[in-house]
Each structure stands twice: as structure tokens, then as C-alpha cells.
Amino acid sequence: YFVWNKMNYLYEPGMALIIPQKMLYKDVYLNYKAHIDSGAISYIHQLNDERIPLHGYSDLRIGVRNMPVSDTSKYYIARITDKGKLVSVGGTYENGYVRTRIRELATYTVAVDTIAPKVEPVAKANWAKNGQIVYKIKEEETGIKSYRGTIDGKYALFYLRIINDRLVCDLDPRRIKKGITHTIEVTVIDECGNQSTVRDKFVW
User: Fold this and answer.
1) Within a 10 A sphere around the Cβ of 146, how many other Cβ atoms?
2) What H or E segment, with its residue span, contains residue 129?
3) Among positive and negative, which fits the CA dihedral 39, 43, 110, 50?
4) Tens of pLDDT along 168-191?
5) DSSP assignment, residue 26?
6) pLDDT, position 38
7) Which of 29, 97, 185, 199 has the largest count of CB atoms under 10 Å?
8) End-to-end CA distance of the chain
9) 125 φ, ψ to 5°?
10) Composition of the chain by helix, strand, coil, percent to 5
11) CA 157, CA 136: separation in Å to the nearest integer?
12) What is the model's pTM?
């Protein structure tokens, strides 16, 4: 039983949840369950059977039982949707636990991301005509942390269109010489440090 105007704690084997006072909108009875799979990275922790939004962030720690990769930066906490999909809520590995901050009481587990983002040119033949360099970014696990692009070894300003996962650079004749072949390099890094770098040439 959690009270909205008090600090609330939930400690279970391999899990710790701390909710500061007034982060709940009302008092709630939690329907907590732990789903145990001895071969999984961690237990699955159902904080409640229905999602409960929080007014602000609360601390969640989940213990790591098995470590399929040695690099601890690859571990993160994921919310499990009703359809079984994993949605990253981030996290940092600390002394056998992954710690993060959550904005809702739902079902969580620890997952691992070792797959680098995919970066692919879009309609490369039209870059010069449209005056835009466009790449499609595909990152299905933890999300994009950073990206950087250069043209002929010099920094180029790219912006990310989140709606369609496009990385775009508007070609500026004041900064890029026209009528020659240019070399472009784009690097994209996800929240677990997985990195992809692509290189292309184009005439403009």
C-alpha cells in the first residue's frame, strides 16, 4: 500500500523502488509480482498489473543475475509493454544492479544492447539536386545518444527528424565548394555506446 504524500519503498529480491512523497497522484495498492527465469539477465518485476503514472521521477534498481556480455555499459532497464515489446528507460550498471529513473509503475526487466544503429543513405542520387544529404537511422533498442557528420573532414551541421528517423544536412554553398567530389562521414552512437560510422562520396 503506497500513500501519495509520504516516501514509499518497495524492496524485493533483486529489486528496489523508491518513490518520493507526492509523486503519486493518489494512494494505491500495488499488485507486485516477480517472474523468475533462471536463465534470464534479471527477473521480470511487475510493479503493478496496470500502468500507474507518476508526477515525477522515482528510482528503480534491478539486480543482474546473468551477464551474457562483460561490458556493463551495454545493460539497461526496459519497460515491457502489454504486447511484450521492450521499451528502454535507460540505466547505469552499479555493483550488480542497473539503476534508472522511471515515470510510471509498470513491468520492468534488465536487457542488453550490443547492436549498433543502422545508418543508410536515402536517395543519394538526389542529394545534389535537392541540396540535402539524407540518411535513415534505425535504432530499435536504447535510442540515439549522439551523432556527428563531416564533409571533406570539416564539421557539418546535421539535424535529426525524429518523426521519420532521418538525419539531414542542408548543403550551404558558402561553406562547401561546388562542382567537385566531396567525402562525407557520419557517426551515430546509441545510449549503450554502440557506434556506426558510414562514409560516402557525392558530387555537388
Assistant:
1) 10
2) helix 127-130
3) positive
4) 999 999 889 999 999 999 999 999
5) S
6) 79
7) 97
8) 65
9) -65, -20
10) 5, 50, 45
11) 16
12) 0.88
Return the SS3 of 9: strand
- The DSSP symbol for 2 reads B
**pLDDT tier, 108 (very low <50, low <70, confident <90, very high otherwise):** very high
Q: In what order do the strands lie in the sheet with 166-170?
A: 118-121, 132-138, 166-170, 159-161
Query: What pLDDT score does 37 carry?
Result: 83
CB 97 within 8 A of CB 65: no
In this prediction, residues 3-7 reach a mean pLDDT of 95
Grid cell digits, residue 197: 560510422
Instruction: Tell me the longest C-alpha to C-alpha distance in the chain.
Output: 70
Is residue 92 scored above 90 in pLDDT? yes
Dihedral (CA of 16, 50, 53, 85) sign: positive
Section 24-53 average pLDDT? 94
Q: For the residues 45-60, what does the mean pLDDT come to? A: 96
Cell output for 130? 535537392
Across-strand partners of 15? 12, 62
pLDDT band at 162 (very low <50, low <70, confident <90, very high): confident
Cα 103 from Cα 90, distance rounded (Å): 12
What pLDDT band is residue 39 in, cutting at 50, 70 and 90? confident
Residue bearing cell 556527428: 148
Place of cell 500495488: 30
